[in-house]
Write a structure and sequence with these properties.
With 99 residues, this protein is mainly α. The chain has one domain. Helix content is 57%, strand content 0%. The protein contains five helices and no strands. The protein is globular, with a radius of gyration of 15 Å.
Amino acid sequence: MKALELRKWDSSEYLQTDEDMVLYLEACLEEAGDDAAFIAKALGNIARAKGMSQLAKETGMGREGLYKSLSGKSNPSFATILKILSALGLRLHVQSARA
């Protein structure tokens, strides 16, 4: 019998279109609750799918800084998140949670 080969799941490999990225981020925002690190990590997955080097150029941030900010282990500022969202071509949308 052939040995089973396992590898770590990488969401960024499946984020191929802008629609994929939007739906992924919406699902992550819904799932995360108040877990900011979860959202930062989701943005990191989208950034890797789009290309971290290009994102670094568009944000004016270094690649290492982006990787650190979007690792899910640090706490990036809201200004950094907004800058990254803009460079990724994404916008935040707010709706009432009470409905």
